[in-house]
Write a structure and sequence with these properties.
This protein has 332 residues and is an all-alpha fold. It has 17 helices and no strands.
Amino acid sequence: MLEATKSSESRADADTPANPALAAEARIARIAVTVFPLLVVVAGVVGFLAPGAFKPLAPSVPYLLGIIMFCMGLTLTPPDFASVAKRPWAVVLGIVAHYVIMPGAGWLIAQALHLEPELAVGVILVGCAPSGTASNVMAFLAKGDVALSVAVASVSTLIAPVVTPLLVLFLAGSYLQIDAAGMVLDIVKTVLLPVVAGLLARLFLKRAVAKVLPALPWASAVVISLIVAIVVAGSASKIVAAGGIVFLAVVLHNGFGLGLGYLAGKLGRLDAKARRALAFEVGMQNSGLAATLATAHFSALAALPSAVFSLWHNVSGAIVAAWLARRPLRDA
């Protein structure tokens, strides 16, 4: 989540002059989103070619995710949560769509492709994760409702310690043994606590945080790329055999999320900007969290779908955002 996206949208709505500093942040956000997929590709290739250099770093993955979540917390402000009270229907619709469409699609894809248990659990786990950290930027670039995007992403992340383990237990329990209680604890430690810490830092260290906000997209991109390299290194020996089917599963999963997320907004009679926001909030997942949980509770192979998803949803998200940005906003 980026301060520039929220500030830029509010300025556009109020027709006020652009603040050069915030405009610069918006440019940084665009560049980061463009470069991010390239960083992830490079990280994946390096992890595959030099697995010995990254495998020993596997225990650090939860701490790396904590850094990403702390950065997310730094971008949150009280008005982000106030927007939930202003239009609860739209936020609730987004949360329900996210935690129904993606977990359900993951389970159906695993069944349809007859994935082996570890890969099936990996795909389902990605679907049960909260919204991705780049979804707000994609909504901004697509001229969507950034305030709604931030609200849905924030709430989906805060309720993840309860919702994600229960969904994984329900949908993936037939494939492998699921330690739901252990997942709850891991998500609290690696997601909830860092987000809260970032939010508190934003409230009490405003000046210091303001100086680092422009660098947050890059920090998140670099750390997520490192997680991808570690995950790929752990399953390098099986990627050649499983890579094709995993890529197909990820493309289908992400595509269903983007399309059905937009459709959910349309069926909920939301305006065009809100529909665009829901498309990204449903279709983009916190694949870093999914990779962390898969590595900790299952295997490196189970984390492979998360690594591929981390690459693909940023590529597809950027393409869809660019396409939507060129289409006029029309409300029924």
